[in-house]
Structures are given as C-alpha cells and as structure tokens.
Design goal:
7 strands; two-stranded parallel ribbon; alpha/beta; 5-stranded mixed sheet; 8 helices
Length: about 210
C-alpha cells in the first residue's frame, strides 16, 4: 500500500445524503510517521449550495451548531467561496496529491466520503476512486485502540482541517498496532520458533 494517505473531513448543515457541505478539509499525510505533507481547507457558500445546487439544510443540524464554537461557525459563514470555486480547487488538490488507483482516502466513510463525491458530481468534476475509500471507525475498531486516551476537547474543534489532523494522529497509532500485533504465548511454545511468527509480530513470553 502507498505510504502517503489522504484524510478527509467535512462540516455540514445537514446529516442526509443531500446535505450541503459548508467546510471541506483534507490533508495528505505519511501513514507511518503521521507527518502532515499537504493541506486543504475551504468554506462553501451555503446559499449558493441551496439555491443553485439543490442541497438541503436541516433544522436539527442548525440547532446543533448553536451549541458549538461560534467563532468557527462565524468564520465558515462569513469567509466562504462559491460552490464551483471550492470544488474546482479541491479537484486540483486531488490531482496534485492523490494517485487515483493507489492513494487510500480516510474518512468516516459512510458520511464524509459520499457527501464529497456528491458535491463533485453536482459540479461535473471527476469523483474520487470509491475503491480507495477507507473507514476510520473500522480501523479503530479492529485495532482496539482506546480513543479515550486522546484529547477530544482540544483536537475535535469542528474546523474540518483541525479535525483531519486530529484524526490522523489516532489513525496512524491504530495502523501501527495492526502492523505490529502482540502475541502472548506460554514459555516453551513452538510459536517461539521465530521463523513461524508472522511478519512484524512481537512475541511476549508468559510464565503459564
């Protein structure tokens, strides 16, 4: 698998499949070290999305935003660009940083990824490769990583780029766990024959 991966995150004014994205964030990162290599973050004009592209906001999400940091919401709603401009810039970012058939694209893949795909389609842009969509929840679940060990109050700001970088931190940790699983085996076990251990496996001796 390619070393460099893409992390994707969106902020929206809805939770349905036709919800308008109001902020689109992404970052290219080194999947082994967690180093952030390239970033993208743009705010999309909400009125343009609704009037010209038929996207629909919902009241429950608008109410939810009232409970979040208002400085972030104010920046999104005041410092934004037309729908076409943002999607065009994002398409350029993808072309420059993502290999269509090789670069894994991480997100909460049942929501963020299909929403971005829908926005690209609506604007007539080339969509991302659906075969390269990787899901954050699946990764963290399989790794068994304890997400409570991470500072969600500081990391999860609901600024899309901040959230991307925060997600990179714990996803890279989860990848390391899966790359180097730990085996606990009894002393004297035939598994202590290192030639029989899987690649990257760490054997821990036990007394029983």
């Amino acid at each position: 698998m390619q070393k460099n991966h893409l992390m994707l995150d969106v902020e929206t004014m809805g939770v349905n499949s036709n919800a308008p994205i109001i902020q689109l964030g992404a970052c290219l990162f080194d999947s082994q070290t967690g180093e952030i290599l390239q970033t993208f973050c743009q705010n999309i004009n909400l009125e343009d999305s609704i009037l010209n592209y038929g996207l629909q906001k919902d009241q429950s999400t608008m109410d939810w935003w009232k409970e979040q940091r208002q400085d972030i919401l104010e920046d999104i709603l005041t410092n934004n660009k037309p729908f076409h401009f943002v999607m065009s810039e994002f398409s350029k970012f993808l072309s420059a940083n993502v290999q269509y058939k090789e670069t894994p694209i991480w997100s909460h893949a049942t929501f963020d990824f299909p929403l971005v795909q829908n926005h690209l389609k609506l604007d007539g842009m080339k969509t991302m490769n659906h075969k390269m969509a990787y899901d954050i929840r699946t990764l963290t679940g399989l790794s068994g990583i304890d997400l409570n060990e991470y500072d969600w109050n500081k990391g999860k700001t609901h600024n899309a780029l901040d959230d991307c970088i925060f997600q990179v931190n714990y996803c890279v940790d989860a990848m390391r766990i899966l790359r180097h699983p730990v085996m606990a085996v009894p002393a004297g076990s035939p598994l202590l024959d290192l030639e029989r251990a899987g690649p990257g496996e760490i054997i821990i001796l036990t007394t029983n």
